[in-house]
Amino acid sequence: PLVDVSEISTVRETSAEDIAKLTVDELADVVERQVGVAGEGEALHIRGGRSDETLFRIESVAMKNVVTGTAVGGTFSAKAIENLQVITGGYEAEHGQAISGIVNVRLKEGGDARRTSVEYHTGNFDTQRAFIQTEGPLLPIDGSYPIPGRMSYLFGIDMLASDTYLPSLRESTR
Fold first, then answer.
1. SS3 at position 56
2. Other C-beta atoms within 10 Å of 168: how many?
3. Residue 128: CB partners within 8 Å, gap ≥ 6?
4. 3-state SS, residue 33
5. End-to-end Cα separation, the chain, in angstroms
6. In this predicted model, which residue has the larger pLDDT, 148 or 47?
7. pLDDT for residue 58
8. ∠ Cα 56 58 63 (to 5°)
9. Comparing 16 with 39, which gets the higher pLDDT?
10. How far is it, in rounded angstroms, from Cα 58 to Cα 75?
11. Is the per-residue pLDDT at 48 higher than 60?
12. CA 11, CA 169: separation in Å to the nearest integer?
């Protein structure tokens, strides 16, 4: 059918390949580029709602500050994301902690081949950003261990250094 009347929400998905084409560093930067999202940093407003009405879920774990109730998780590195969903509108009762929208994040997993990638960027005010990620199998793939299945690792470090004393400039270089 042209219109699915049982669908009550709008879901926008972004894959790791799409994120790699963007000039973003953090999860919040990717979410900001979605339709119906405004704000910056972790203070994101989906469909005009307050920032504490948004729920970040990383690998199905709700990321909320237990004291203030505000959403946390927006500073998570965008390079570690495999898939991102921004859900707006109505949603199932299982998402009862969100009013404006839900951001579902699935993280990357380690692969069967050993790989390491290194990125280094510099900018104004002696700002440097470095990202290092390594992945690979944890055990030999030949099956010589009596453990069923496969085990792999993925380890990443995302570092930002800025040499400015002005807080507004420090925030603008994130």
1. strand
2. 7
3. 120, 121, 122, 160, 161, 162
4. coil
5. 45
6. 47
7. 86
8. 45
9. 16
10. 12
11. yes
12. 34
What CA–CA distance (Å, rounded) separates 34 from 162?
28
Pairing of strands 115-123, 101-107: unpaired
Query: Using one digit for the tens of pLDDT, what is the confidence trace for 89-145?
Result: 766 656 566 777 888 899 888 888 899 989 888 877 778 888 898 988 887 666 666
Spatial strand order in the sheet of 101-107: 9-15, 81-89, 101-107, 54-58, 61-63
Lookup: tokens for 154: 């993925």
DSSP-derived 3-state class of residue 87: strand
The band of 83, judged by pLDDT with boundaries at 50, 70 and 90, is very high
β-strand pairing of 54-58 with 101-107: parallel
pTM: 0.72
Whether the CB-CB separation of 155 and 135 falls below 8 Å is answered with yes
Tell me the two tokens of residue 31.
């979410």
Cα 88–Cα 94–Cα 99 angle in degrees, nearest 5? 40
Copy the structure tokens of residue 11.
Answer: 């879901």
3-state secondary structure 102-153: EEEEEECCCCCCCEEEEEEEEECCCEEEEEEEEEEECCCCCCCCCCCCCCEE
Report the distance separating Cα 144 and Cα 123, nearest Å.
Answer: 48
Task: Specify the pLDDT at position 23.
Answer: 82
